[in-house]
Amino acid sequence: MAKSKTVVKTPKQKITKAYMKRYWQLYALLLLPMIYFFVFKYVPMEYVLIAFKKYSIVQKVWEMPWAKNHGMEYFIKAFSSKDFINSLRNTIVLNLLDLVIGFPIPIIFALILNELRFKLFKKSVQTIAYMPHFLSWVIIYGLALQLFAPTNGLVNMAIMKFGGEAVPFLNEGKHWVGTYIGLGIWQSFGWNSIIYLAAIAGISPELYEAASVDGAGRFQKMWHVTLPGIKPTIVVLLIMALGNVIGSNFDRPFALQNNLVMQNAEVISTYVYKAGIKGLQFSLTTAVGLFQSVVNVIFLLSANWLSRKLGERGIW
Amino acid sequence: MKKKVLSVLLASAMVLSLAACGSQSAAPAPATDNAAPADDTAAAPADTADTTEAEPATASELTDGKFAETRHITVEVYDRGNDGGSDPTNNMYTEYIKKGMLEQHNVEVEFVAVPRWTETEELNNLLASGDAPDVCVTYSYPTILKYANMGGVIDLKDVVEQYKADTPNMWDWLGDKNVLWDKDPNTGSLWAIEGKRAEQQRIVTFVRQDWLDALGLKAPTTTQEFEDMLVAFRDNADTLLGKDAKKMVPFSVSYDVGWRASNIITAFKDPKMTDKEYYVNGFDDRMLTEPQTKEAVRLLNKWYNDGLMWKDFALYGSGDSTEDDMMKAGYVGAFQHNWDYPFRNGEDSINANLKRNVGENAKFVAIDPFENSEGKHAKWLYSSAGDRKIFFPTTNDEVLASLLYVDFISSPDTIKYLQAGDEGVTHNVLDSGAIQIVAAEGDAIQNSGKNIDYTITCNGTWFGSADLAALSLAYGYAEIDPADVTQADKCAMADGMEPANVNVGEITAEADAGDTLSAKRDQIYDNAMSAKPEDFDKVWDDGIADYLAAGGQAIIDERTQKWEATYSGDMLP
């Protein structure tokens, strides 16, 4: 009796012996992922210290001597390095372009698909749009070369056939940025639209019926019913995208870049790879990586805070 | 009941996962432990040195060159990923090595493949994780230096002397010159043993003989004639290539302009450049910061903008076969590369492909058109040292066995077998006694020219004797006319300059900058070559300024300072 009383009385459960006895299995289940995160995500974090130390492969991380300038040597070095500043700038520019151009496209695509009534057509369009997501960037670069190479690329050959000048899609900085963004959107918009389609499917049909009764047309329904219906989803994804604004994936820029466009194509992840793993400057690049992570967390937290301020739910 | 079963299951899953985690997280620890007392392992041979000196019998561990118990070592081998090549860790030649090492020294050899074109990255990963092979090979001395400074490489200065009696072949073949080439004059440390180049030929210009013939041209003998020839190729593309005329590339380079236009850049060099100036700018062999290089690249830039060169050159990275395929298909008129480049790979060689794809007369032949201000066709040769460097990481606890491996691989018999293979299978012996290489199949295919990936102390034709090598050089390429090889050899050696060894101690700035600068160097070359003519000066000057700021200047300064500390004049004694 006493047990049930406490359950009823307090909205917040007190963790009592009896409670644990009843639910311990649930906590035991949770323990597994927690151990996983601890061992594989938190324990390796001790190596973040490398950013503040003079790295040596033969010493444990605790034994390495501290770097100069109170351990900040490598941060100072990074921020006085033109290469790092350049890759930081490129990372932000490319990611912002991705966000501004690439973020709305899956939403628009999902809205359009949702309006289609011919099922078979809808499904096939959807499937075809997903497919590029499963291609690796190396393959996409191979395709891009076949299409956009200045002399042998199909597109440029067509342009020249009609008397035009070859467009340096891949070998001139600004054009390359366009190609990079375009390929990124092509690869992912179909896949990214899945989550919006799912959200749209969750909107109650009654809302549409009510809107119809009120005399709303197709576009009005889209604007006043569908979009507000998926707004929380959009906000959550936007927060996650903002949290990644100076993050960068590796394979896309790495596969697409070449010597002629490095001024616009070097991003933090590829810089870390080249300076750190190829150039053996482990401390320097750990410092860069740490900086990147910290900024990402700040972005994530502020985007989340902002969305809650604006009355949305945020991600936690 | 169900609940009980579930809880038991859960509990056991937890215990298991904990155990798994335990062993997982424990695993790296011993690895670092192994690596941690680097000084110990490095010191260990020195200890044994003391004991062996105490006992008069030097071969305390070896009886008749053999270990009492079988030892096991791992050896790095390049994986070139050739189409139709053999497995680099398991073929006719690895079998020979394994068998030989086991019989002569009771040492088991295991090969570890490392991709040739990303060797530095791969080796870094292996070294950093403590998984590097016992016998490592690389072209990059800065990589070795970097790890040596962190205590990750065994100092060989004592062991090479200590085991001198056990390694006669190594000392005979490499000599003091190559074994001690990298010995630091200040500290005496020896981090690596230099392999030897049996061939000093470096880079040659090739041109399509059949195109010259078709247009009634003579082989060019000056830079201007070479340019005129390229223009003639371009203007007569329709005659030469018919419907593929648009695909013509009169002169081809890859992203690595410093290598692929090396003879042009060298021709611009002031013949009176001092040894000091050459050394100071000699961080790598691409001559980026030498004063003449800008004008050489300006010429390339002109050719590029005149439509004489391949526009897509920078889009393909190292190891990509697109450019080779264009040569094989017959679209390329001329190029510069390693002196035997179109002859390599037997039936898949560029010249053999041309013969098949284009016609009986289609082939690349060597020419030597670029003259310097003295009218000489000056070009760099290889030094007989300065090839691959062999080093042992501190994770190697079989130093003697590893040295014995270097010894075994340097013995005349081994080199001969690895280069020539079995008679009747991979070579024939001509009446003159010369060895003629024939195309091999399956297991007997050599993935690298003259099997240099296995003969890590020997690069180039040797066959165990210099005379035999000289006699056989022209017959060293299956499917290739010996006269073409002889001509390439002549062009490669004409007015050749051999770089001298300048060893003034470690240049610390190089270990820091190393690979980053090499990448930057290629970017500068590529961007300058493909810039608009009016932008050329800006692109080049900005690039060089960036290169110097990113570490190039620090290297030049340190080299200057150490040169001045070691030598009195501007020339080597």
Classify the beta-strand content of chain B into a percent band: 5-15%
SSE order of chain A, as H and E? HHHHHHHHHHHHHHH
Number of domains of chain B: 2
Low-confidence stretches of chain B: 17-59
Helix content of chain B: 40-55%
Numbering strands along the chain, what is their spatial order in the largest sheet of chain B? 9-10-8-11
Major sheet characteristics of chain A: none
**Percent of residues in β-strands of chain A:** under 5%
What this model shows, in words?
The complex is a heterodimer of chains A (316) and B (573). With 316 residues, chain A is mainly α. Chain A contains 15 helices and no strands. Chain A is flat and about 75 Å long. Residues 1-9 of chain A have low confidence and may be disordered. Chain B folds into 2 domains: 44-55 and 62-197 and 386-413, D-Maltodextrin-Binding Protein, domain 2, CATH 3.40.190.10; 203-380 and 499-566, 3-Layer(aba) Sandwich (D-Maltodextrin-Binding Protein, domain 2), CATH 3.40.190.10. In chain B, helix 8 (168-179) packs across helix 18.
In short:
The complex is a heterodimer of chains A (316) and B (573). Chain A is mainly α.
What is the secondary structure topology, with strand pairs?
The complex is a heterodimer of chains A (316) and B (573).
Chain A: H1 2-9, H2 17-42, H3 73-79, H4 82-102, H5 104-115, H6 119-130, H7 137-148, H8 154-161, H9 173-201, H10 205-213, H11 218-242, H12 251-256, H13 262-265, H14 268-278, H15 282-309
Helix pairs in contact in A: 3-15, 4-9, 5-9, 6-9, 9-11, 11-15, 14-15
Chain B: H1 2-26, H2 28-35, H3 38-54, E1 62-63, E2 66-67, E3 71-79, H4 92-105, E4 107-115, H5 119-128, E5 136-138, H6 141-149, H7 157-162, H8 168-179, E6 193-194, E7 196-197, E8 203-208, H9 209-214, H10 223-235, H11 237-241, E9 249-252, H12 257-260, H13 262-268, H14 275-280, H15 293-305, H16 322-329, E10 332-338, H17 350-357, E11 364-367, E12 379-380, E13 389-391, H18 399-410, H19 412-420, E14 427-429, E15 435-437, E16 458-459, H20 466-472, H21 482-493, E17 496-497, H22 508-529, H23 536-566
Helix pairs in contact in B: 4-18, 6-22, 8-18, 13-15, 16-17, 22-23
